Amino acid sequence: MLNDYEITLDRERIAWTFGTPSVRTQKLPLYLWEWGHFTTQRGYYTARENYPQYLLIHTLNGEGKLVYDYREYVLARNTVAVLLCEKNHRYENISDLWEFNWFHFSGSIAYEYYCLFNDEDKLNIQELRPGEPEAKLIAEIITQDNRIDFIKDLNTSNRISSLMTMLISRKLRLQRDSRINTIEIINNVINFMTENLTAGISIDTLADKVNLSKYYFCRLFKNQTGITPYEYLINLRISRAKQLLRTTNAILDEIAERSGFLNSKTLIYNFRRLTGMTPGAYRRYELMF
Question: What is the pTM of this model?
Answer without folding.
Answer: 0.69
